[in-house]
Amino acid sequence: MVELERQLKIIQKNTVEILPERELIEKLKSSLKKKKPLRVKYGIDPTGAEIHLGHTVPIRKLKDFQDLGHKIIFLVGDFTARIGDPTGRNETRPILSKPQIEENLRGYKQQIRKILNLKKTEFRYNSEWLAKLKLEELLKLSSNFTIARILERDDFFLRYKSGKPIFMQEFLYPLMQGYDSVVLNSDIELGATEQKFNLLAGRTLQEVLGKEPQVIITVPILEGTDGKKKMSKSFHNYIGINEKPEEIYGKLMSIPDSLMKKYFHLLTELSEREIFKLLKNPLLAKKRLAASIVENYYEKRKAEKAEKHFETIFQKRKVPEEMPVLQLKRENLKEGKIWIVRLLCLTKLTTSHNDARRLILQKAVSLNGEIITNPDLEIELKEESILKLGKRHFIKLKTT
User: Fold this and answer.
1) How many domains would you assign to the chain?
2) Are 211 and 101 within one domain?
3) Peptide bond into 86 cis (omega under 30)
């Protein structure tokens, strides 16, 4: 009973809902009695290669299960990624090609090994069974869901109400995610709160097909650096775990103070008591938060270096000691000058001429401490100059 209570307490931490909790308790009792680990499913569609801190919230919960001795099944939606999960979106996702999916998955695995033990993680691909599903079988499965029930979802309802298209394959997405649970015999499925409908679809199909239904566990959605919208690359408010330590640290120092408590709880191992004491001093708390998270994905030495970098730039208002260097040959300059927009593109800090122009007009670009406001400016470079973009990016320019 002591071990049951211990596991339950760890599982309950940082969750929103456990449905139904009494079934989870029974599953844990059975697991302990039979010494048989529970099968915990978590599905991803490899639609992007970069993992941000928002993604790590459910993955950290998976680690809890893995540390407790349970079996983690990482369900890779290589088939459903060709459809695109409509959850939380007000438009249809673009359909990805097989090479894109494979490339994204390689990047995903490389990053999640920072959190999970991949040797103890089972990877499955839903193309194994969904690609073989016959039309007759699909129709039989779909008979367990009504259009009215599916339209109850906010994402579908809002798109329908606003006249935006909803394609048939999107209606089938929850059904296919549910069928994954049937094939994998999952005991538990984990996901963010916005995934609740899809998670419940798994319970529905398991019951219909005579299997023991899975327990669903939802975890909170993490707001991004703006403090308003959920963390997402689409909203440009994300912090990637593969970004440079200095970048992760700097972005975390920019989050609103109101988010710190949530970030501490969901992204660190600090105790409630430690968090309470830290929050009495917002600046020191934010520094501890940033350092803890950088250390999670890199090491203590790099976290300390990132902190020093931040203090140099933001608190002491100095130029960092180390920065990337861009070598420019004089013969490639026009009378010793270069168009500022072209220069920004050469640094690869901007993705296009339009992006460079936008940043200049936003007064986010400076050269040797002077803000540049004219996107048509031809600048004359000294032998060595410092280009600054935004608050954190510095590049040393050298002409040879």
Assistant:
1) 3
2) yes
3) no
Neighbours of 35 (CB within 10 A): 7
Residue 177 is predicted with a pLDDT of: 92
Whether 230 is in a domain gets the answer no
Residue type at position 11: I
**3-state SS of 284-304?**
HHHHHHHHHHHHHHCCHHHHH
Q: Are 222 and 266 in contact (CB under 8 A)?
A: yes
Of 315, 350, 368, the last residue of a domain is: 315
Instruction: Kindly state the helix (H) or strand (E) to which residue 112 belongs, with its residue range.
Output: helix 98-112
pLDDT, tens digit, 9 for 90 and up, residues 130-175: 999 999 999 999 999 888 777 776 667 677 778 888 777 778 888 9
Containing structural domain, residue 389: 325-399
Domain co-membership, 158 together with 305: no
291: domain CATH number? 1.10.240.10
Q: What is the CA radius of gyration of the chain?
A: 25
Percent of the chain with pLDDT over 70: 93
Q: Between 282-297 and 260-267, two packed helices, what is the crossing angle to 10 degrees?
A: 30
Q: What is the distance between the alpha carbons of residues 262 and 260, in angstroms, rounded to a whole number?
A: 5
Same-domain pairing of 305 and 331? no
CATH number at residue 340: 3.10.290.10
Q: How many angstroms separate the Cα of 53 from the Cα of each of 75, 112, 195, 265, 267?
A: 20, 11, 18, 13, 8
